């Protein structure tokens, strides 16, 4: 298989996970299995704690039983909650404001404890706004329902019957819309490779922000889609959502210092171009 062998199972099925580890004997486990809709987590927190938190506990127990002692964990900036200052480093207090953020933050706490007690080395990578698609258009982003801003703005440019709702134009930002830090998936992938290589040589529990240090407002995002698509996205204005901070931008200084990582292809126009290429190719499939 081009993308490697596939075993499908519920992450909470410790016996099945243990069997997969026994079969392949990996040097490390990269853990991406999570539910990630903030609104859904508020409406149904039990589902998020069962899958994201208890599921990771089952995975850790399977790893411990099989002597697999390295974990690369896909975490989130949602653990920071409402930031004290616009640019966030890893020392910023974690104060989640939704069950999704809590479900991931609890896992990070578990990893610290499992590291001290059982010697499981780990890296938690706190993504900011993962965005963009494979530049060759072979794989990309498709969610049901779609909640991410970039594919929704692209859809609003390609289909006038599917307008994009801009939540809030009264933030304390230059144009009144919220500012976020978008990082291309290729940059994220490279960070995972570097973190995995570090884990093979280094014990301990580590956390890194993955962002660009550059913020893009929602209005700027709409402008970038217009440039790429050659047409205006249909936009309707809505009230700001409760708990939305005006600015969320990462400091990636620690990742640069310890992993040798910095974003290389996360310019907003490139992100939009790759996402649009994927959307157009997927529509023809």
Automatic annotation (TrEMBL):
Residues in NAD-dependent epimerase/dehydratase domain copies: 6-211
Keywords for the protein's UniProt record, in alphabetical order: Carbohydrate metabolism, Isomerase, NAD
EC number(s) recorded for this UniProt protein: 5.1.3.2
UniProt cofactor(s): NAD(+)
Catalytic activity: UDP-alpha-D-glucose = UDP-alpha-D-galactose
InterPro entries reported for this sequence: Epimerase_deHydtase, NAD(P)-bd_dom_sf, UDP_G4E
Domain of life, per lineage: Bacteria
Pathway assignment: Carbohydrate metabolism; galactose metabolism
NCBIfam families for the chain: galE (TIGR01179)
PANTHER family, per database record: UDP-ARABINOSE 4-EPIMERASE 1, UDP-GLUCOSE 4-EPIMERASE
Protein family (similarity comment): Belongs to the NAD(P)-dependent epimerase/dehydratase family.
UniProt name for this protein: UDP-glucose 4-epimerase
């Amino acid at each position: 298989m081009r993308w490697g062998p596939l075993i499908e199972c519920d992450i909470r099925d410790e016996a099945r996970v243990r069997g997969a580890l026994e079969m392949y004997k990996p040097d490390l486990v990269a853990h991406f299995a999570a539910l990630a809709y903030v609104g859904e987590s508020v409406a149904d927190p039990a589902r998020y704690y069962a899958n994201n938190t208890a599921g990771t506990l089952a995975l850790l127990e399977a790893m411990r039983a099989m002597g697999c002692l390295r974990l690369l964990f896909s975490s989130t900036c949602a653990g920071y909650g409402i930031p004290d200052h616009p640019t966030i480093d890893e020392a910023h207090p974690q104060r989640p404001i939704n069950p999704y953020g809590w479900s991931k933050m609890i896992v990070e706490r578990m990893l610290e404890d499992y590291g001290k007690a059982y010697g499981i080395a780990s890296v938690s990578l706190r993504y900011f706004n993962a965005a963009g698609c494979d530049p060759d258009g072979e794989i990309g982003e498709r969610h049901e329902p779609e909640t991410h801003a970039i594919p929704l703005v692209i859809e609003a440019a390609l289909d006038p019957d599917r307008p994009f709702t801009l939540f809030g134009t009264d933030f304390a930002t230059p144009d009144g819309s919220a500012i976020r830090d978008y990082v291309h998936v290729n940059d994220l992938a490279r960070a995972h490779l570097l973190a995995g290589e570090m884990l093979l040589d280094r014990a301990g529990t580590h956390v890194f922000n993955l962002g660009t240090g550059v913020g893009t407002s929602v209005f700027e995002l709409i402008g970038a889609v217009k440039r790429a698509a050659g047409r205006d996205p249909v936009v309707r204005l809505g009230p700001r959502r409760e708990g939305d901070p005006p600015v969320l931008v990462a400091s990636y200084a620690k990742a640069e210092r310890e992993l040798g990582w910095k974003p290389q292809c996360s310019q907003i126009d490139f992100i939009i171009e790759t996402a649009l290429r994927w959307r157009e190719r997927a529509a023809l499939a």
